[in-house]
Write a structure and sequence with these properties.
- It is a single chain.
- By secondary structure, this protein is an alpha/beta fold.
- The chain has a single domain, classed as 3-Layer(aba) Sandwich (Rossmann fold), CATH 3.40.50.170.
- 37% of the residues lie in helices and 22% in strands.
- The protein has six helices and seven strands.
- A seven-stranded mixed sheet has the order 3-2-1-4-5-6-7, with helices on one face.
- It is globular and about 50 Å long.
Length: 198
């Protein structure tokens, strides 16, 4: 992508959208990066209301359509999307989409990969596994997306200290606070570094 072009982000999310909310607010007045589209695979996802609140276009795409590039790629192309941010998107990204946006899809995982990663390791499942293990350190990992769950190139990791008495819900809250603190800044740095090497 030429360095003079503005980066246009699509956020993919399945849940309430607290990360999406922070990301939208962060880039609201950014000169070089904008959030243009929010995509969800859940019709009732709170993230769709986040899109409304920020005046950002949103689209719900049901599970049956995710194997159809001829449906999904035009949606992204219409909004001239250059980068995809997965913010609590609970579905494997199809290979054809990874190829179309190679090196331009980023995900946040609520643990320190490679620990507590892979299929089935999302949301409360992660925090319950951390609690069960007795680990007193968890954290976040932000990584590029490839064809395998949670195995793409790591861009950023941040540890979160836990207390032995923390419940899975308390672990989740501590980790989410750190996600909110860093995710948008890491996205900005990641996109800027791509522009520098373009």
């Amino acid at each position: 992508m030429p360095s003079g072009d503005k980066a246009r982000i699509a956020i993919f999310a399945s849940g309430g959208g607290s990360n999406a909310d922070k990301i939208c607010a962060y880039f609201e007045t950014h000169p070089d990066i904008s959030v243009e589209l929010i995509v969800s695979n859940k019709a009732e996802a709170g993230v769709l209301k986040v899109a409304d609140r920020h005046g950002i276009e949103s689209v719900y795409i049901s599970k049956k359509y995710w194997q159809h590039p001829e449906i999904i790629l035009p949606v992204l192309e219409t909004s001239e999307i250059t980068h995809i941010v997965l913010a609590g998107f609970l579905s494997l990204i199809p290979d054809w989409l990874i190829k179309a946006y190679k090196g331009r899809i980023i995900n946040i995982h609520p643990a320190l990969l490679p620990n507590y990663g892979g299929k089935g390791m999302y949301g409360h499942h992660v925090h319950e596994a951390v609690k069960k293990s007795g680990d007193l350190i968890s954290g976040i990992t932000i990584h590029e997306v490839n064809e395998h769950y949670d195995e793409g190139k790591v861009i950023f990791r941040k540890e979160v200290e836990l207390e032995a008495m923390d419940t899975p819900e308390e672990i989740a809250r501590k980790v989410l606070q750190v996600e909110h603190m860093y995710f948008a800044q890491v996205i900005e740095g990641w996109i800027n570094s791509q522009h520098e090497h373009a």
